[in-house]
Task: structure prediction
Amino acid sequence: MNVKELCLGALTFGDASGYDIKKFFENTFSHFFVAGYGSIYPALAELTREHLISAKTVAGEGRPDRKVYHLTPAGREVFLARLQETTPQHKVKSEFLVLMYFSHLLPARQVETVLDSRLQEFEQHLHRIEQHEACQHPESADPPGMKFVCGFGKTVMTAASQYIRDCRKNIITETKRSSSQKHDARRKPAGS
Amino acid sequence: MNVKELCLGALTFGDASGYDIKKFFENTFSHFFVAGYGSIYPALAELTREHLISAKTVAGEGRPDRKVYHLTPAGREVFLARLQETTPQHKVKSEFLVLMYFSHLLPARQVETVLDSRLQEFEQHLHRIEQHEACQHPESADPPGMKFVCGFGKTVMTAASQYIRDCRKNIITETKRSSSQKHDARRKPAGS
DNA sequence: GAAGTCATGTAAAATGTTACATGATTCA
DNA sequence: TGAATCATGTAACATTTTACATGACTTC
Result:
């Protein structure tokens, strides 16, 4: 499941420009999928070449022209097929946890900062999800799955935040305690 | 924070071969960082060229030879510096949630299967973490951060599993209900 | 005899990120 | 005047995944 396929998915909810699709990803998928212009625009170009979507340029009045894309029947079929073929993975790539794993090699101050900014980001995400849930247009194309993914994100991030808050003090003191060992290790590298 | 840097990190716990490092990643990092041989071996070769690690070949008795790598002082310093520079991100890339978002386009059976296999995988992961926590060698180099990352993984995956279990029945019935709408949509694509 | 583990690596392909280039309009 | 939003795109680079190639030993 790559950006190309996700673009097809976005267009099942109606015609949109590359810019719109980016916004859609940001609002809806931000906590489990990211995509920048650098991958969206080339994806749309390629999908157009493959006739899975069609483009028409709409003149913007007092605004740049937009290229509005429309899902073709072939594109819809390809998307449905891909959805059914996909073995759905769920991957986490966390430099945050890597850092915490190696926290004994870091100054306690930095560990504190890292934990706090992680908490902040989780809370921002939670806020964003709640906002997005609140402002759903009653006649909009919000699929039933949206509730599930929003709930999932909220559950997971709430649990993660709570865990960090519970551990925070412990971690800081433990990190400080192992600080002396760290200095030993730096002066006398293991295995030398 | 890429595989190259992670290899340096792995070697702070002692000398190891590429094969060992892969195992280390699997045991320790599997729930928040993945790396295959295809990225580990080239990374080690490059680090050797940069003199951040040194290699020596150890003849295996009745087994293939191993190339055992050792972190040089320069390598240790580079790793510590990188740890401090890194802005720690925490990214989720979930085809599972994408699928759930589009569950209204899928047969209810598949949605059920997807949820169940996701539950299974979470439970496998939880099991693996618990095993890894249990069999810690008393004199081993387990860093204090290990407890944190294991606890984090357990917390998050337990919450996620519970959420899925709580939603499961609801989702299935909702998906079935919206099934008729799906067929309408397929026969009369929006915007045609 | 088949499958699995130990062990190292390469090459091509897929994928995504970052930086750049352009330019009008709106709001403070 | 400066920043933000709207809007599209390219090119270079970074990074990872996948498939291939090799081969001995062990366990069922």
Chain A touches chain B through 72 residues (CB under 8 Å). The two ends of chain A are 47 Å apart (CA to CA).
